[in-house]
Amino acid sequence: MIRPVLIAAAVCMMAACTVTPQAVPPGPVASTAGFEVTLKEAWSRWPDELNMATRGEMLTKDGMLLNRLHLAKVKADEPWVRAAKNADVPRFRAAASEIETVDFIVASLKRIGYSEMEASSIRPETLDGQAGVRFELNGKWENGLDVRGDAAFIPSKDELKLVVFLAPELHYYEASSAEVAGIIGSVNLP
Fold it and tell me: What is the predicted pLDDT for the residue at 13?
């Protein structure tokens, strides 16, 4: 009799420690990347521990394969993608130009399964009073599905604050692009 009770207690304790996606209501959201964004609608938050491809947390409205908003901080000389310590992966360089940083983001996306990924409409963008860069993304997911996205970043001497939105071109990108533009525009740095 004691054994089933102990097993049930152990299962309950493990379940309490499990990291799961959480519903996020509209309003300000503090990210683990060290900045805040404001949502106009409810999203689901996927913590860093559930993101096996890149560092940082993700938000989604309809599921990770249908739309995802990456909120990340990448330290100098570190990769955005998850990889073994000495793996040959793109790494953020603090001394990189804006174009080199865009290339770093595109190369990182190619590393995690996006192909034919290209950046376009690269332009300066002021985010929370700081100089940043904004651009659009076009490519294919590994299954051949056309994807589009929007990205923005704010570089500093030792890290990169990054917001990247990706969704299938058919329906899901257009359905969320206006809201995502507002989210990117709402970046609030400490």
Answer: 47
- The length of the chain is 190
Phi/psi for 128 (5° steps) reads 50, 40
Tokens coding 31: 């990210």
**Per-chain mean pLDDT for the chain:** 87
3-state secondary structure of 147: strand
The domains of the chain are located at: 20-185
Residue closest to 82 by CA, chosen among 53, 49, 56, 104: 53
pLDDT beyond 80 at 19:
no
Cα-flanking dihedrals φ and ψ of residue 136, to 5°?
-105, 155
Give the contacts of 44 (CB within 8 A, at least 6 positions apart).
21, 22, 23, 24, 59, 60, 61
Strand pairing of 68-75 and 36-39?
unpaired
Q: Which fold has domain 20-185?
A: Protein Transport Mog1p; Chain A (3.40.1000)
Question: Per the structure block, which two tokens stand in for 62?
Answer: 């309809």
What are the two backbone dihedrals, phi and then psi, of residue 61, each rounded to the nearest 5 degrees? -100, -35
Q: Which residue has the tokens 């595109």?
A: 106
Per-residue pLDDT, 7: 56
What torsion do the CA atoms of 67, 69, 27, 130 make, to the nearest 10 degrees?
A: -150
